[in-house]
Amino acid sequence: MHVDSLVWIVSLGLAGALLVVDVAVVGRRPHVPTRAECLRYLAFYLGLAVAFGLWVWAHWGAEYAGQFYAGWLTEYSLSVDNLFVFLLIMGKFAVPRAYQQTALLIGIILALVLRGIFIWAGAAVIDAFSWIFYLFGAFLVYTAWKVGREGEAGDDDEFHPPLLLRIVQRVFPATPEYHGVKLTVVQGGRRLMTPMFVVLVALGATDLLFAFDSIPAIFGLTSEPYLVLMANLFALMGLRQLYFLLGDLLKRLVYLNIGLAVLLGFIGVKLVLHALHENEVPFINGGEPVAWAPDIPIWLSLVTIVAILTVTAVASLLKVRFERIEEPAPVADEAPQD
């Protein structure tokens, strides 16, 4: 797949323009977006992603379009998991609803920057070392096992501060109250950080941890840096609106961890099989490709990803519905007797 420099420039320019518009809208007036506003933005971003995939299909064929859609869906599902952690962070630090838009937007920008760095580094490593797919695959299988052990979402709704956040809280003095969306204020001649600064550090640290999972996962579906970057860009677009639109619905995805574990495990196995199929490691099969190792086609990967995400969502919502039906009705107080 050859992507000339003009396509790169136009793609990144349009994505940057959308981001600037988003920043301008939020920066002009911090507010809680209405349901109609969230639906409009979300439909627009989802429509853009679908249209981009069709454009890839028209220019480079169905194979690359399938790689983009598979990567986009995978990154989107991981981003929803990221949103759930964002929800815990907002609750932990009692971020006022009107300021959550700003915090989310900055968190998404940090995620874009970090993923861009990881994509560049990942592409360079893959070009230099083909055996890296073994490590990526093993890492994803381990991550799947670790995520699966967490069980149902909601089993542990407590936010566990990452090391970076604990260091910042220990070293830098902070105010107990918010001052709008300001990160620092001067009080008594001292520069103090606000809770908003702490929240952004927490979001940034979370983004860093999620980048470690998402980048190997996307490279398990496509090795084209352009598709990897665009899948990540489209996966992060509209997350702010999705956060406010779903709200408590995120907590109803009780099988999200299990679904993501299956998804990451599948991609991890796919990566290992791909590495065996094109093996060049001397101590594995004498440095020759392993004949019995199948290279899973992208259409099968796309069907599997859609099936996993669909089953996860439907099973989660059904369980929540049945639990509500089975809840005993509240006992009415007896009327006083004369």
Q: Categorize the overall geometry.
A: globular
> What is the N-to-C succession of helices and strands?
HHHHHHEEHHHHHH
Overall pLDDT: 77
Flag low-confidence runs.
Answer: none
The total of beta strands comes to 2
Number of helices: 12
Helix content: over 70%
N- and C-termini, Cα separation: 86 Å
| Class computed from helices, strands and strand pairing | mainly alpha
Biggest sheet, in brief?
2 strands, antiparallel
Order of strands across the widest beta sheet?
1-2
| Global Rg | 23 Å
| Beta content | under 5%
Number of domains: 1
List keywords for this structure.
single chain, 338 residues, mainly alpha, 2 strands
Topology:
Blueprint lengths: L4 H24 L6 H26 L1 H31 L4 H32 L3 H18 L13 H9 L12 E4 L2 E4 L1 H25 L5 H12 L2 H8 L2 H4 L3 H22 L20 H29 L12
Antiparallel strand pairs: 1-2
Helix pairs in contact: 1-4, 2-3, 2-9, 3-7, 3-8, 3-11, 3-12, 4-7, 4-8, 5-11, 6-7, 11-12
